[in-house]
Design a protein that fits this description.
Elements (H helix, E strand, L loop, with lengths): L9 E5 L3 H12 L4 E5 L2 H11 L3 E5 L7 H10 L8 E5 L4 H9 L4 E4 L4 H55 L3 E6 L5 E3 L2 H6 L10 H6 L3 H16 L4 E9 L5 E12 L5 E10 L1 H36 L3 H16 L9
Parallel strand pairs: 1-2, 1-3, 3-4, 4-5
Antiparallel strand pairs: 6-7, 6-10, 8-9, 9-10
Length: 339
């Protein structure tokens, strides 16, 4: 960490000798640090809890609670335990240094203080403090991402299980199309409805397209790709689909487009329903309706001709009336009557 990057870093200096405080205050403030001071352990703990400095320079020998006890209390407090503590001491015994490190201090600076050493150690531990914060933030973010991914994977697993249950329970031909690889998975319905053995069913989209009736193929392919490219989530169409025996079944095909987090279509799920019987019934109903219409028209013709005959006894007029009414009913240009 350069001197420039230490601006606004708060340092708490704790020493019972005002002259020592003044020297360190002036020196470190000249390098852009924000300086807090305390003359005893009790006030140091209070200021640390309130201001939460980035670093504490702590004298050991002080009236009241000494530096060791002050450090112990700071490390026992959840709000201040992570603040690095550097001891300032004239003690040089190894046992004292070990005691301080065991209490949670990160370093020692031995009196009389050398300004260059103080600055170097302060900058080093502030850099370590910042790196630790960054690492903690990255770890927290990573933990959150892992948790989100686990939740996503669990939701995906449950979704896949539900899909498999539905795919095996339905009579429809269920399909799962990977839009990135163009591979298609089919359930047993493709055999049940259309008679294709598993070893015959192709795993590529081209096999699916190849079974669509030639007269319907362009419309179906164009429609499904238009829906995908247009960002739509649902597609539906009716068309003729070839069975394994060469006959054609009418199918209602519905598909749902799945997009990734960037909104790109990556997958499509759907199902084909055989609606041949419905189509045949519709055709039968149309034929019946047409036949009823023709019978009604014939009855109307006979009624009108009969009326005209009753209103006229002239044969030529009767025949002309019959021709005119037949032309209307049949929408014919010419009608000939043989007798």
């Amino acid at each position: 960490m350069s001197v420039a990057t230490t601006e606004r870093s708060a340092i708490l200096i704790v020493d019972d000798i005002p002259a020592n405080l003044e020297v360190l205050f002036n020196f470190l403030a000249g390098y852009g640090f924000k300086i807090l001071v305390a003359e005893d352990g009790e006030s140091a703990i209070e200021k640390a809890e309130y201001a939460l400095p980035e670093l504490i320079l702590l004298d050991i020998i002080m009236p009241g609670i000494d530096g060791f006890e002050t450090c112990r209390r700071l490390k026992a407090n959840e709000s201040t335990r992570d603040i690095p503590v550097i001891f300032l001491t004239a003690l040089s015994e190894t046992v004292d240094k070990v005691k301080g490190l065991q209490l949670g201090a990160v370093d020692y600076i031995t009196k009389p203080l050398q300004h260059e050493e103080v600055l170097a150690r302060v900058q080093t531990h502030l850099r370590l403090r910042n790196l630790t914060k960054q690492l903690q933030a990255q770890n927290l973010q990573l933990e959150q991402e892992i948790k989100q991914r686990q939740q996503y994977e669990e939701a995906l697993r449950q979704s896949e299980e539900r899909f498999q249950v539905i795919a095996h329970a339905t009579n429809d031909a269920v399909w799962d199309w990977d839009l990135l690889t163009n591979e298609v998975w089919w359930n047993e319905g493709v055999q049940t409805l259309f008679g294709y053995a598993p070893e015959v069913v192709g795993s590529n989209i081209a096999w699916w397209y190849g079974q669509i009736h030639l007269e319907d193929r362009e419309q179906v392919i164009s429609g499904i790709h238009k829906a995908i490219a247009g960002g739509e989530t649902f597609w539906v169409d009716e068309y003729r689909y070839r069975c394994s025996d060469g006959s054609y079944a009418y199918v209602l095909n519905r598909g749902y487009v799945i997009q990734d987090s960037q909104g790109r279509p990556v997958r499509m799920l759907g199902g084909m329903m055989d609606v041949t019987e419905r189509k045949q019934l519709e055709e039968s109903l149309r034929n019946t309706a047409d036949e009823l219409q023709r019978q009604y028209q014939r009855s109307q013709l006979f009624a009108q001709v009969t009326l005209k005959i009753r209103q006229s006894l002239q044969l030529e007029e009767v025949l002309q009336t019959a021709v005119t009414e037949v032309q209307k009913i049949l929408q014919a240009d010419r009608v000939l009557i043989y007798h």
